[in-house]
Amino acid sequence: MTIPSVLGISGSVTRPSRTTTLVSAVLDAITARTPVRPRLVELVDAGPTLFSALTSDKLQGSAAEIVRAVETADVLVVGTPVYRASYTGALKHLFDLIRYDALVGKPVVLLATGGTPLHGLVAEHQLRPLFGYFNTLTVPTTIYAVETDFRDYRLVNPAIADRIDRVVTEVVTLLGADTATAFGPAAAAHNLPAALSA
Ligand SMILES: Cc1cc2nc3c(=O)[nH]c(=O)nc-3n(C[C@H](O)[C@H](O)[C@H](O)COP(=O)(O)O)c2cc1C
User: For 5-197, which CATH class?
Assistant: First the structure.
């Protein structure tokens, strides 16, 4: 049996990072519940190399390897700080380099951290549409954490821990369902307008 790979992506461009703490907590919780191969990519490290390619045909070396890891992971756990009411530009750049049909049917967890509760729906109105474009299977529960949910960059709010539990249950359910086959390229090909194939 192949052990599924779970790739966490932190869209933060600073260290230490609350977003990285949240992404890591979700990765750890999935790993504790089911056998997976976890990996974390932090854009604070990977950003400069990814930005050395402005288009996917210019990808080389570690940037190409990261893009390949995103495209081939069985599950993505994507977290971003809110920047100007959206995800970071670094996170968007990474997904601008991903093949439009590489993520079809892939379970994706959506996470965000912000400075104000007023942006608490950012995963719904910014992240979910981005992954809708890719025809991924975003899990129903999203997590948004603000600065008071952390102390010294560690999560301290039990309500966030409860939501992590819910997310893990959803991921484990989807892993058992083989969604990549059910919603894979063959199933999705005729749903994609030609304009999206560019
Ligand atoms: C350039 C910049 C823009 C930001 N814009 C917002 C924003 O629009 N809404 C918000 O709630 N927080 C905003 N913040 C606060 C961050 O989202 C918040 O501190 C986040 O938890 C930082 O995550 P990190 O520790 O992973 O970098 C902004 C911070 C920066 C540096």
Answer: alpha beta
